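User: Need the bound-state model for zinc ion:
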Amino acid sequence: MKDAIVQVGDPILRQKAKPVPKVQFGTPRIRAILARMKKALANEEFGVAIAAPQIGESLRIFVVAGRALLPENAPEDAPVPPEMVCINPELLRVSRKKREMSEGCLSVRGKYGTVLRHEKASIRCYDENGKEFTHHGSGLVAHIFQHETDHLDGILYIDKALKLEDEKSREKLREEFPA
Ligand code: ZN
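Assistant: Bound-state model below.
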């Protein structure tokens, strides 16, 4: 069966995605793209985020799964926040301090790699209704912001990984994030 997510080798993953024009915010076309992105992400048990080029749309949009937005010390039964929709994102500030984390990518099946990224990253973007917002991410969320904005510039984590490995046991997978 054909993969629902565009896989490495497809040129769309290497293109610089185009910003969504302001007049298109909230239009049926953009809403349909967001719905497809949310559905594709929801279908991935371990997926934490997805960028529009991964569903074949070269637009500057990414969606972060709600559970990835929970604070690291959140209790088990904490309510899961809704997905974060980021349109035309801009990385505002990043920490000087960096941290290594294991990453995967829904567009590079079966691989994981260690990537060194800024430990904190603030992002400014528009939500699905065209409202501007800023989010300060640290840890996993900061890594996701950098992984996803890279996607929009045609960069994949495999270009940056210090170490690349084949998929390991399911157990280990839970600590890692494909995005
Ligand atoms: Zn990815």
